[in-house]
Amino acid sequence: MKNKISRERLSSVGFEKVDPSLLEPAIRESFVRRQHAIELKLDGLTGAEIHRITGLPESEITRFFKRYTALTEEGIFWGESALIPQSRIVSYQRRKPLEKKGSEQKGGMSGALSYTLAKFPTISEKFKAAVFRTDLEYACGSRYDKRQLCNIFYDICAAAGLTAEDWPFNQARGARRTITRYIDKLLNDDFQRAALATGGSIALIHSKVGTGYSPFLESCDVYDLIEIDSYHVDAFFVLNISGDKRTKTKDVISRIWLMAAICRRSNAILATKFVFASEVRSQDLVDLICEAYVGGWAPREILNVKDLRYSELSGMPCYSVPKLRHHIWGGICLDNAMQHHANKVYELALHSLGFSINFGPLGQPARRPNIERLFKRIATKVMHQLPSTTGSSPADGRADAPEKAAIRYQIDVDDALEVMDVYTANYNGTPQGGMNKANSPLDILRDYCANDDLLIPATPESYINSVSLGSSTREVKVTGSIKHGIRPRIKLDQAIYTSTELANSPHLIGKKLTIRIKPHDYRYVEAYIDDGIYLGMLTVEASWRHIAHSVTTRKLVNRALAKKEFQIAEGQHPVLAWQKHLIANASPANARELKRLQEERCDTSQLIPKGQVEIVPEQPSNSVSERWRFLDILN
Fold first, then answer.
1. How many CB atoms lie within 10 A of CB 320?
2. pLDDT in tens, 286-331
3. Which residues contact 465 (CB under 8 A, 6 or more apart)?
4. What is the β-pairing status of strands 225-232 and 331-333?
5. C-alpha 615: how far from chain center
6. Cis ω on the peptide bond leading into residue 168 (within 30° of 0)?
7. DSSP string, 310-365
8. Secondary structure class of 404 (helix, strand, coil)
9. What would the pLDDT profile of 103-130 be if each residue is shown by its tens digit?
10. Residue pLDDT, tens place only, 57-66
11. Distance, CA of 146 to CA of 150 (rounded, Å)
């Protein structure tokens, strides 16, 4: 009789293999005979011929071949593992009905669980939902108690119609050991669902790592993939509004974010950015990408924190290796945060700079291992060593009174910016293991640029200037009326813009202009007519004109005005009125916004009028918080 299963099909479907040398000597000989018999049958020999060679009965050869070609739950053949003596390929199924058992009678209950589940299928369905907690909406991650699950099993059995005379109620201890083993089997059969049920969302995230499958983006070179993410800084800081660090302040700032871009191959930090807001905005991501791409970093000339210094080998990539400025990226790895899906991010990445965006699946931060490792290192070596730290959670590393500690020790946010700037620069010059093989990230980048056989892809600077990197465009309708004597103008975020060219072009009234906006100085915008012809620079009305401000600041001021949170006096600049309101109504959120305004304008004297708050120029001083000197990075 011709075999229905050939060697070709075995190879295509797959089968389990066994190394005979690892078997016990008592069963090794039997296994080898059975293996030889199957090989002969696959070669086309008859049962009689195989019996003459191996000595196995023809009926046994047929039985072994059926076991050999049976399919596992994974969809492959059992193969050689089915030939091991005393091995099972099908779990035991009880067919004999359960009989009434005496109180002292032992045995006779083999397969009672499988028999009960087969007779009452609803028990299995409901109990699986309880084991994996799919019947509860918000229970995953809480304490997992198998004893409680046994009680749930009893309730399900009772609801299915089982009485005190039936299994498991007729058992002395309720068959808890059998039910517990059944729970373990269910958990072992589905690792991800078991991780979610027993350990919560964090365990589910970890379960998606180390699956044995090769990653889709496995091998990459320098700047092929850039990982970008944000980290919520776990600490309180104080904000010196006056700028004089000799004056103690009680203005506390919290919930600030650190954004970073890191090269996956070299592990080099391309750029960092502190965000003083409750949440990261899409414009913050655009700013970080532009900074990492252009590379405008330079070491600080003055450092106020005692013993803080840049190492000789420190620096950022574009500063230490100028050839990398405007180097083309292959793609960026982001998570699925809402701000990452903004149109301005797509416009910058896909159209202006020409690299891809890889968001990846939800809930898998391990796709960005380098950036996650960096943030963990910053947390443990810097932020969690401060007396004002909030720790990873209230039960993990949180100081007793972090807000009071920030005021008591004057842990200044400006000092934190200095420490992080030096730390990231020194990080790039520190030798690392892994793929770097004891080389620093900057060493990897220098070796990459020193390869004469490699053509370094770079964007021409003329193109960077032509696209006005980081800017955004908007279509706006020109308003005005010759009849009422209103000259042509446009309106952007509740402010009027015009120019001499536009004011004397009444033929443009009612038509749309393309406006190019530089997000960090909203006083001036570029206007283009429908054919792409440059019309000129438009200037905002007088009330917004004299102090540089960003699009974000304008929107925040307008939103606060709409909510009637503050008022603007006649002739008062809106930004100054906004800042005065923030100072008068001190809170962590307002302190955070004040710091954002300070970062927006490097010179604080342009933001705060003289006479309202005393401005004292910062000088290098050792009077800053002595708590910084205990950090590992300074020792």
1. 20
2. 999 999 998 889 998 888 888 889 999 999 999 999 999 999 999 9
3. none
4. parallel
5. 41
6. yes
7. --TT---HHHH-GGGTTBPPSEEE----GGGG-HHHHIIIIIII--EEE--STT-G
8. helix
9. 566 667 788 888 888 889 999 999 999 9
10. 999 999 999 9
11. 6
